[in-house]
Input
Amino acid sequence: MRLPATDRPSALADHAADQLAFIRDTMVRAGRFTAVSGVGTIAAGVIGGTAAVLTPQTHSPGQRLALWLVTAAVAMVLSLILIARKARRSGQSLRTGPARTFALAFAPALGAGALLTIALVHAGAWDMLPGTWLVCYGAAVVSGGAFSVRVVPVLGVCFVALGAAALFLPPVTHVWLLGAGFGGLHLVFGLFIARYHGG
Output
């Protein structure tokens, strides 16, 4: 049945809008960095949880700082290795496209966390470090996660919430909050990513 002449522009506009929505959705999905490794996140959780268990055995703020810096370095290297393995498996490049966008969004908050760590250590404000680390790492995950699967920015928001708590709660709670974040959250979200987003 032929449409009346007056209905044709409306039908064409609706069809064009549907096509644009499909193209937009396809581009968004193609632009996501899907090589975030659930296994790597789990590994980071195990390393972070171990550091939280070892923290009470340290005898000075400097020892605690060294423990967590080594923990961060080991977790980051292991995570990058496992991300690279997942990216190779899925045919994603780590140098261009979504991976580059993810990294560029992720890096500034981590850089800010490093600078704040140096400044706080210089000022002797040791009790501010756990909250700063959690908030800055969470902000990095939220920013990078905007270009990844939906669960990643949720992980970042949870880290920011723990960091906000650490900034205002007594220092005796800090090791628990660090363990809950870098240990517990990594484990829970890593298991989810591994199960529902390809390992």
Q: What stands out?
A: Helices lie at 8-30, 38-54, 61-90, 97-123, 129-145, 151-168, 174-196.
